[in-house]
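Sanity check. The docking grid for magnesium ion depends on where the pocket ends up, so I'm generating a full predicted complex first rather than guessing from homology. Inputs follow.
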Amino acid sequence: MFNIAALAERLDEAARTATAIPQLTEALGVDDAYAVQAQSMARRYARGERRIGIKMGMTSRAKMAQMGLQDMIWGRLTDTMLVEDGGRIDFEAFIHPRVEPEIAFLLGAPLGETVTPMAARSALAGVAPALEIIDSRYKDFRFSLTDVIADNSSSSAFVTGAWADPATDLANLGLILEVDGVARQIGSTAAILGNPIRSLVAAARLAARAGEPLRAGDVVMAGGATAAEVLAPGQHVRLAIQRLGRTDFHVESARRTDQCLQKS
Ligand code: OOG
Ligand code: MG
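Predicted complex below; grid placement will be based on this.
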């Protein structure tokens, strides 16, 4: 047997202190893993964080191939995970962060469990290019399906660009992820379930089934369109998506003298 609350605390502490932990040895089912996720997030809410939406994961073949998992997963986003467009993340606040190109949806109206792609689209207030910073709490970024679900699907931070017209056709927009001005991943929004709107439909279903239906004002991250890139201190990361625009952030480290000097 296993203790959901104890596992939730273990994962929450690993995230809070940026300390890697071994993979779980408990034989969790998928529902158990989501229960651990919900309880570990409840600990964050108790510390004052606010849920502002959800993220989808494993919605592209590129991500499935990189991580060796086939099932779609989801996790909760809080206000403290949101990084300002063009802002900075503190490398030391993470264990082994990676970045991936995504699309973010901003809801202007709530969405119930069963919605058509057209209904999901008309509930949108905006869409934006987005970068997700994932940081598995497990050593070496290795995990099973239930491990990663329990770990809030590796959520750790995200950046969104300016909100663009939600009527934009998202089916096949070219995208480039650059690190320090060099293209590292090139792809298309089509990699996200053939059309990222499908990820929003799935998000509405999964959130409602968990008893936390999507609300007006919620943000939904559609999932990585390409494999993720490893982050290092000092980097500047930028994503440009055709017709949607761009977003970027800097990876700062207190241990780098040049940046310490800049700060003082
Ligand atoms: C799991 C999270 C997956 C995505 O966009 O597919 C994810 C991981 O790769 O650590 O965020
Ligand atoms: Mg992601």
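Relevant for the grid: The helical segments are 4-17, 30-46, 61-67, 117-122, 145-150, 197-209, 257-263.
Also worth noting: The chain is about 25% helix and 30% strand.
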